[in-house]
């Protein structure tokens, strides 16, 4: 396989995590049109290491440039909006070689560069503009509307809004380790038995989704949920979750419940993964590199809680733990190689701390004293049901309350209903149409009930390819376009697991169901 060179990742300068951009208009967000911001010859940086595009960055800029800081790993740093649009569109063109950066004492900063991070990576803006144009060429776009740009605007807005509203559980927000042996052995065995290209299934990304450049670098799934593959299914998922949970709980100091597990996703040559934060309740997470065939490392870029960017390279068996709800992460630099395969493991904090100070907090509370610990042992007791990882008094609290009117949940309910799976979910998942009919007849409110991952019984029936279950639920009035917490509809899961020609997929499409996939 690849992995032919030592890791020489570049990384990030203090990232301003302000939320001032929330009121930015679309026109201001995108700035000038692509044709107006093309860098002319005189704007191109001089020929030196400071001018290299990212295609050469790992090979050239192994040491910080003049004025460039380093992060805790000793990597050269850069800020947000340097490698990829994160807080603003377009990318910074405040090149390090411009006079006001080289000799600020004698060259005032021009107004258009005030507050803009220094660009150490060359003309990244042109590369990003090319990517968006390719997306629009594929999906269509006009001067008045572009589904590709709309997706980008949503991603950037979320990257500003969400992190500042989140409770963090670790100091830096990420950690690279070797995967626990039981996790690695199970995932590796599954991959070795199913890695033949004939088992790769195309990911069906939603129209205009820009989280990967799938229109030119397709991604594929060798899914641990695809029961047509050897060893796949709920039993494998359960073992992976169970084996990974202790490691991530130890790292976060929090009790965790299963949330989402997907992959193995296979990225192909030229792939880019936009820098983003995950939608809740994907909070405490891990990426496990399963296999790769590359010409040079393909780092995951993360912005730590210290405000610095880090580029972390991985080998098969490496696992990166990360707080995916608040840690900006992506792979904004094109993959150089044949493929790169990862699996993603997500958990949600229950609100019960496993830290030592949680016991002290409980003792304080029992004595009528104030809990002085920032995330002690009592987050689960919030009377309105606000998840413990959303801070009080934040934008996300307001958004959560709007989407959960009158929501209240006791700690007893949380403990007894940790997954949210109902008898209707179980019957739909197993294809037991008679039991499902009986459940819905006696408990009609379960027709569109959602579990902790946002899955309805229709999601379960569609994924399982159970046509009779799907028809029963639809005939009883189930919503065909409900989206789970990852943003996916039942049709998406039917096509993903069973194919577009499957009777369930065809039935849902005849009804006009939407094929919308995960927002990740």
TrEMBL record:
UniProt superkingdom: Eukaryota
Residue ranges of the region described as Disordered: 38-59, 359-430
Keywords: ANK repeat, Repeat, Signal
ANK repeat ranges per the UniProt record: 453-485
Matching Pfam families: Ank_2
Position of the signal peptide: 1-28
InterPro entries noted in UniProt: Ankyrin_rpt, Ankyrin_rpt-contain_sf
Basic and acidic residues bias spans: 368-381
Protein name: Uncharacterized protein
Phylogenetic placement of the source organism: Eukaryota, Sar, Stramenopiles, Ochrophyta, Bacillariophyta
């Amino acid at each position: 396989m690849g992995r032919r060179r030592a890791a020489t990742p570049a990384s990030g300068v203090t990232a301003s995590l302000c939320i001032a951009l929330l009121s930015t208009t679309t026109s201001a967000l995108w700035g000038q049109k692509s044709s107006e911001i093309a860098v002319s010859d005189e704007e191109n940086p001089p020929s030196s290491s400071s001018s290299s595009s990212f295609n050469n960055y790992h090979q050239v800029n192994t040491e910080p440039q003049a004025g460039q800081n380093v992060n805790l790993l000793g990597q050269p740093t850069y800020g947000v909006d340097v490698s990829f649009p994160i807080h603003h569109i377009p990318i910074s063109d405040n090149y390090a070689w411009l006079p006001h950066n080289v000799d600020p004492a004698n060259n005032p900063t021009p107004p258009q560069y005030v507050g803009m991070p220094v660009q150490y990576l060359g003309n990244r803006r042109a590369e990003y503009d090319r990517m968006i144009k390719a997306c629009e060429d594929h999906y269509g776009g006009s001067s008045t509307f572009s589904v590709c740009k709309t997706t980008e605007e949503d991603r950037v807005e979320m990257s500003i809004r969400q992190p500042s509203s989140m409770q963090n559980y670790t100091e830096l927000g990420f950690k690279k380790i070797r995967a626990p042996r039981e996790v690695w052995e199970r995932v590796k065995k599954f991959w070795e038995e199913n890695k033949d290209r004939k088992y790769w299934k195309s990911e069906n990304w939603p129209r205009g989704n820009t989280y990967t450049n799938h229109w030119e670098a397709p991604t594929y799934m060798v899914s641990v949920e695809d029961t047509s593959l050897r060893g796949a299914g709920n039993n494998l998922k359960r073992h992976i979750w169970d084996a990974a949970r202790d490691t991530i709980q130890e790292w976060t100091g929090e009790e965790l419940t299963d949330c989402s597990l997907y992959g193995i996703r296979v990225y192909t040559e030229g792939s880019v993964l936009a820098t983003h934060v995950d939608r809740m309740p994907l909070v405490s997470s891990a990426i496990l590199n399963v296999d790769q065939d590359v010409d040079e490392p393909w780092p995951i870029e993360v912005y730590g809680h210290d405000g610095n960017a880090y580029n972390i390279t991985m080998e098969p068996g490496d696992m990166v733990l990360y707080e995916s709800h608040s840690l900006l992460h992506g792979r904004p630099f094109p993959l150089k190689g044949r493929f790169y395969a990862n699996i993603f493991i997500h958990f949600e904090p229950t609100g019960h701390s496993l830290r030592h100070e949680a016991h002290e907090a409980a003792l304080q509370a029992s004595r009528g004293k104030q809990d002085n610990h920032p995330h002690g042992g009592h987050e689960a007791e919030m009377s309105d049901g606000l998840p413990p990882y959303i801070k009080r008094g934040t934008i996300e609290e307001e958004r959560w309350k709007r989407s959960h009117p009158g929501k209240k949940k006791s700690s007893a309910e949380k403990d007894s209903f940790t997954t949210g799976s109902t008898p209707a979910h179980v019957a739909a998942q197993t294809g037991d149409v008679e039991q499902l009919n009986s459940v819905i007849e006696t408990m009609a409110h379960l027709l569109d009930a959602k579990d902790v991952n946002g899955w309805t019984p229709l999601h379960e029936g569609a994924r399982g390819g159970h046509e009779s279950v799907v028809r029963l639920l639809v005939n009883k009035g189930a919503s065909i376009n409900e989206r789970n917490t990852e943003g996916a509809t039942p049709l998406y899961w039917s096509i993903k697991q069973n194919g577009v020609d499957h009777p369930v997929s065809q039935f849902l499409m005849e009804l006009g169901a939407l094929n919308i996939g995960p927002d990740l």
